[in-house]
């Protein structure tokens, strides 16, 4: 897949909640190639400080209009600078990077999406895509966060799924507990999903992976790791896992070019 570098024009950059922003970018070259689950590397400032580009998933993609959207949580220097950018300014981006989500089988009766915190940023584009590709599948979202103020507004996802279940660690909204416990609480043994997509913090993914493997549910997981180059040069994004290229299995997977989307069997979760 062709990658592009372009100066993307900021069309909007607004807060969705106290710690999360949404940036809309006019980026026709990247948008043309982008798929859900892939990401862009953003140079947050032309001053080269911070020096390394930061990776962000495609939150939404509009190929016809040449627009991509990012939803990002402010956690450090780079994202703080991003949050100060104004409409009309540009940010240099490179992408699309990574493999992206594959669609579920044609006959998948129910597809579940499990989002933990800012992991939701990668799943909205996936839900939108599956709504178009598999209109007969029942789409159910489980959305967990530490506390209610971390949720992004439901206007961004409520029309994409048939059911939404919220959970918070502190009980301030929805089910009180983890998103996996929330899933288990609404699931009888007879109503397991045909397919599952997940994105969130490592501990959430780990527990969800054990659960899908145990219940033989086909799934894809979108993972994060701290990235240097984002394009396979530095090997800094390695995680314990295995990819079979037909001549023996590897011991590590590289999130930027073999991921960020993996089948649960490809990761050594116990070592994460
Ligand atoms: C493929 C991919 C897609 C991503 N998509 C999104 C997204 O859509 N929205 C979003 O908000 N974030 C996303 N992230 C995480 C995002 O890239 C980091 O939060 C960002 O780079 C932090 O930059 P910073 O300069 O603000 O923080 P820094 O000052 O670099 O770091 C602040 C803190 O964040 C931690 N951190 C830095 N990078 C990462 C990382 N890659 N993963 C986990 N923790 C990190 C650091 O260890 C440190 O504790 C994604 C990461 C990857 C690898
Ligand atoms: S971030 Fe450099 S190889 Fe993946």
Automatic annotation (TrEMBL):
Q: Name the cofactor(s) required for activity, per the record.
A: FAD; [2Fe-2S] cluster
Q: Which UniProt keywords apply?
A: 2Fe-2S, Electron transport, FAD, Flavoprotein, Iron, Iron-sulfur, Metal-binding, Transport
A GO molecular-function annotation: oxidoreductase activity
| Positions that bind [2Fe-2S] cluster | 229, 234, 237, 256
| Record has DNA repair as a keyword | no
Q: Which family does it belong to?
A: Belongs to the PyrK family.
Q: Under which name does UniProt file this protein?
A: Dihydroorotate oxidase B, electron transfer subunit
């Amino acid at each position: 897949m062709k990658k592009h570098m372009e100066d993307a024009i900021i069309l909007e950059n607004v807060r969705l909640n106290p710690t999360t922003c949404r940036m809309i970018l006019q980026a026709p070259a990247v948008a043309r190639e982008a798929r859900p689950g892939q990401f862009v590397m953003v140079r947050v400032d032309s001053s080269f400080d911070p020096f390394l580009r930061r990776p962000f998933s495609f939150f939404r993609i509009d190929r016809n209009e040449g627009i991509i959207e990012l939803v990002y949580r402010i956690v450090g220097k780079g994202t703080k600078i991003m949050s100060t950018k104004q409409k009309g300014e540009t940010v240099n981006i490179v992408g699309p990077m990574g493999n992206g989500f594959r669609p579920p089988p044609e006959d998948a009766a129910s597809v579940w999406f499990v989002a933990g915190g800012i992991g939701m940023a990668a799943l909205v584009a996936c839900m939108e895509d599956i709504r178009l590709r598999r209109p007969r599948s029942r789409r159910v979202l489980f959305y967990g966060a530490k506390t209610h103020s971390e949720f992004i507004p439901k206007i961004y996802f409520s029309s994409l799924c048939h059911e939404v279940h919220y959970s918070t660690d502190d009980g301030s909204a929805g089910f009180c507990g983890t998103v996996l416990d929330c899933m288990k609480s609404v699931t009888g043994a007879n109503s397991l999903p045909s397919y599952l997509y997940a994105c969130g913090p490592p501990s959430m993914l780990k527990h969800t992976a054990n659960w899908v493997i145990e219940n033989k549910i086909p799934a894809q997981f979108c993972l994060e790791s701290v990235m240097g180059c984002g394009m396979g040069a530095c090997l800094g994004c390695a995680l314990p896992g295995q990819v079979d290229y037909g001549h023996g299995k590897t011991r590590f997977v590289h999130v930027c070019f073999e991921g960020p989307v993996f089948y649960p069997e490809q990761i050594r979760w116990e070592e994460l």
